[in-house]
Each structure stands twice: as structure tokens, then as C-alpha cells.
Amino acid sequence: MKKIILLIIIVFSFSSSIVAQPPLNFDFNQRVDIYDGFSDIGTQSLYWNSGILNLGYCYSSHFGTTISFYDTLGNLNWKDTLFYSQNYFVGYQIIAINNSSFYLAGIVWNDTITQYDIFLAKYNTNGDSIYYKVYPETGANIFTAIQMFSPDTFLLLSYWQAQVNIDTSNIVISKIDTSGNIITTLTDIPDMKKGYGILKAGNNKIYVGGTLKTNLGTNYHVKAFINVFDYDLNLITRTYPSLALNERFKAFNLWNNNLYLTTDATDFFYPPNPNATPKSRIGKMDSLGNYIHYSDFGYFCFTCGSGTPKVLNENCLILPIIYSPDSLFFIDSTLNLICKTNVDLPNATCSMSSNFDILPSKKLVGTGYFSQDATHSNDHWIFLTENIEEYLNTNCNMMSVIENEIHDHSYYLIYPTPFNEFLIVRNQKYSSKLFNVSLINNLGENIISKTGVYEEKLNTTFLKEGIYFLRITDSEQVNVFKTIKLN
């Protein structure tokens, strides 16, 4: 076989063998004992009131909630541990609409079978309680998410079951004012869905995402679903975007008028197969929750999972993959990998929570747990990283070019090179294999994106003379080639 020499960008593979960039530097990272002497774990960080608000949970004889507030230098302003008369009082999410107060929503229960209820609490800037309201229900009403609907109204998502851990449930959406009063409630049809995320979009749409079981009992698969409602909570459509045999909803976010959904996907039978190790998947969707395309990232790992995707800027989405090790994947709007880095510390067991926040300075603030060894209780781990945009500019320059030989596994033919009015990509090995192709300029901007089978012809008449990079992605590999446009 004749050897073809091309200039190729260093290739980053979507697999566990991907080469990470240098780890992030921290402005600070520290272990904090919020609940003195007992185990406590951070679950959410929120940039608020020019500082860092952290939420977590703790455990002694029963579960409680921890909240703490730090300045951006890592100095503790106040902390509090919250226990009520219930056996279980856990705040799942904090949300703020101004700098004078914040809200905490979660679950309380007295027994483990039926009496789960949701609560909403409001606190001032010193962490003092303004109100605490429980919304009692017969059966188990499980809080999962809260979202702003208007300046004085929340959307609160939960699912109701006659008792815990049964197959059927009702998705419940409640509109609640900032005084804690329920305005209206939608109880969706009973089925095997559990809703875990809610988003309000600017197009008169409310998105609810979650996971469903395909069958009753123990013989089932799991699938992600998206329900779309209007602002009056009327159902617009239901979609089931899962493509793998099993695909569990993790989180979603809105970016540039598209919905970005993260799932953990596997084609093993799950449960109960212990080999059913999922891989993190992110999908780009239209306004009705239909896939435009998707990409797999992270690791095949049973204990790994996708966190909430966060928008860094108009060109970059941050996807956290939690555990083994904690990592951040930086992705563009067409789901191409820009860069990846690990977030870990030597000589300690640290894990970040899946819900971090981004400061106006483009630094990431997060929490999680810190444990030096197995004999000591867990404590909060709080951290603030360096500026992420500066990190990307310094460490993730995808324009580094090397001269290399195309080996047998690189079976794409690119011609003509240099090119003028058109550029053709041909798969010389498979005549029916789907691939995605993107043409990128020397500033890293995506100019052309297409999906092809066997061969794709790109119209390049409108392009200026210069150097371009062609990224080709299929189910097995990613290749990026350098080429030149001539006038």
C-alpha cells in the first residue's frame, strides 16, 4: 500500500485512553468540617451575593442538611447544620433570585415507606430561616428539581408514588410563589417515569426530563424521556430520545436555543448484569426534544456518571464526568471535544459534586467530599479553580500540527489537497458507515458541519484562502487533518 503523508492534528479519542491536558490549578481547595466530627458531603455550589454558597448533607443517627457561605478567597463567613424532627431532612437544591435571600428545597420523611414530603425554605444572607414549609401528601412525594419561572414564581418538580420503590409514579409540577404558596399543580398521568430535571425556555416551553422503566417488575430496560409543556402546563409532546438498549437520564441544559441532554448509556442488559458499565453520552436536541446528533465521552465505568452541563461562553460547554477520576470535558456546540482535564488532588480521596457554578471571572467553584483515608469521616471539599478560558487558551491549543503517516486504521481519503471550490471526504473501507465531518478555520471556528455515508462533498467556494482543519468522527475514531484552501 502506498504511503500517504499528510499533516495531521494530534488526535484526541473519545475513550478512556484519551490524553488529558495538565490538571487545573486551584485558587484554593480545602477540606472543611461543616458538621463537626461526623460525615458530611457537599452537593452544590452557587455563586451568590459576591460569595460562594454551598449545600450538602450530613449524617449521625439520621440525615440532615448543611449550608455554608464563603468569600471568593475561601474564607468561611458562616455555616449551619439543619436537623428537624423528621428522620430525614435533606436539601437537594439551592436557588436564589436576588442578593437578599436564597431558597432551599428538598425532602423530609418520618418513615421509609409512605410519608415522604417536599419542603421549601427561605433564608437571609446570614443563613437565618425566614420560613420553612412542608407540603404534606399521602404517600411518597419525592422532590427532584426547582427552576425559576418568573421573578416571583418557582417551578418545583417531584414524582408521587403510593409508596417508595414501586414501579408506577405520577410526575408533579407545582408553581409556587416566593412566599411558599402553591399557585397551581399539574399531576401527570401515572406511568413508569420519574422526572429528575426541569427547565424553562424562552419559547413558551417547559422541559421535564427523566428516566422510565420499559416493563413492570425486574425484567426491564431504562430509557430517557423528555416531556414538553407550555407555560400553562399543557402537554405539547413526549419524546423518548434513547438510542442505546439502556439510557439513564442524568441532566440537561439549554444553550443557543438547543437542548443538551446527558445520559449514561449502555447496550448491556441493565439491571442486573454486573457488566453493564455505562458510558456518558451528550445529545444535542431541537426545541421538541428530538436528537440532532450525539457524542459519547468519558469512561465505561459503572460508578461514573455525567454531571450537569454548564455553559462557559458562546463557544464552549463544560461537561463534568464524576469519579474514576473526576474530569471536565470542554465541548463545542456541535459536540466536538475541545479539551479534557482531570480535577483531582494527590494523596487524598476527593470527588467533586455534579453541580458546580461558574463565576463572572470564568472560574469554576465547586464542592464535594474529601476523605484522607477510609478510617476518617468524610468532610466537605470546596474549591475555586483558575480562569477556565485562560486555561483553555494556554493548554488546549488544538492547532498544534505534526507530520504523520496515515496508517491502515485511518481509512478516510481527503481530496483534492490543496482544495479550491470543493473538498471531498470518502470512507475507503466502509460504504455504509455514518460519519460526521467539520471544517474548522485556524481560529478554531466551525465553518461547515455535515453528516455523510461513504462520501461527502463540501462546497468551499465561499471560503477565504488559508489553512483549515478537517475533523472526521465516526463510531470508532476521530481524525483531524490539516489542509489548505487556494484561490
What does this protein look like?
2% of the residues lie in helices and 56% in strands. The model is unreliable at 1-19 and 398-409 (pLDDT under 50). With 487 residues, it is mainly beta. The radius of gyration is 24 Å and the shape is globular. The protein has two domains: 5-12 and 400-485, Immunoglobulin-like (Sandwich); 26-395, YVTN repeat-like/Quinoprotein amine dehydrogenase (Methylamine Dehydrogenase, Chain H).
Name of the CATH first level of the largest domain: Mainly Beta
How many helices? The count is 1
Major β-sheet annotation: 5 strands, antiparallel
How far is the N terminus from the C terminus?
32 Å
C-alpha geometry: globular
- Using the CA coordinates, give the radius of gyration: 24 Å
Keywords for this structure?
Immunoglobulin-like; disordered N terminus; 5-stranded antiparallel β-sheet; 56% strand; 487 residues; mainly beta; Methylamine Dehydrogenase, Chain H; 39 strands
Q: In a nutshell, what does this entry contain?
A:
The protein is built from 1 helix and 39 strands.
